Amino acid sequence: MILKKVAGVEEALQGVESGMTFMLGGFGLCGIPENAIAQLVELGIENITCISNNAGVDDFGLGLLLQKHQIKKMISSYVGENDEFERQMLSGELEVELTPQGTLAEKCRAAQAGFPAFYTPAGYGTEVSMGKETREFNGKMYVLEEAFKADFSFVKAWKGDEAGNLIFKGTARNFNPCMCGAAKITVAEVEELVPAGELDPNQIHVPGIFVQRIFQGKDYEKRIEQKTVRKRS
Fold first, then answer.
1. pTM tops 0.85
2. Is the pLDDT of residue 79 over 90?
3. Strands 134-137 and 140-146
4. The CATH number fitting domain 9-114+148-216, selected from 3.40.1080.10, 3.40.190.150, 3.90.226.10, 2.30.38.10
5. SS3 of 42-108
6. pLDDT of residue 23
């Protein structure tokens, strides 16, 4: 059995350089790789491309990288919670590629499975399909979408073992699983790391074959994107 455990986030991110393309799991602020993002900020790398469903908020998540102008391009689906993102996009400082949410997930999964491309009806006849090959199947038009190509995937799981097997919890089981194995190197940070063989095989969501490095994260803030509560009676 190959053990994937590394000492911490510093070792996990060895080889990260400016100009690279990164996948980052999470949905809103749920299930984001907080430790990896903080380390990317600390490293000060620049001109990076980030593939993520959203861009965090102004002072958390990918918003921390945007604050430092470390991101050159964002490939995302929903970006409506970040004022700094909006400012940089409208000013031309940030290159943005908006992608339908299902297409973004499938482009990750295709890369994970080793498929170079796939056809989807999403986006046909819109700006999304401009410059892309289209084809008719059974009387319906489809757009050819290419799988993502990334240098690192950074994902966050609830529990993992030293062999890289992962279990996700709740909504964190969103873009994280399909980003595992979808880049040259997948780095998983977990809230709880156990010895190899301790996880129930029937509960594992992603097998360790898709993970190259795993470490136990710390100081998770788990911030709520928009807290909505009812008034007390």
1. yes
2. no
3. antiparallel
4. 3.40.1080.10
5. HHCCCCEEEECCCCCECCECCHHHHHCCCEEEEEECCCCCCHHHHHHHHHCCCEEEECCHHHHHHHH
6. 98
Give the start-to-end residue ranges of the domains of the chain.
9-114+148-216
> From CA 25, how far away is CA 54, in angstroms rounded?
9
Gap between the Cα atoms of 150 and 157, Å rounded:
20
**155, 4 in Cβ contact below 8 A?**
no
Task: Name the burial class of residue 112, with classes exposed (0-12), middle (13-18) and buried (19+) by CB atoms within 10 angstroms of its CB.
Answer: buried
Furthest CA-CA distance within the chain: 58
pLDDT for 141 equals 97
Place of tokens 């819109």: 126
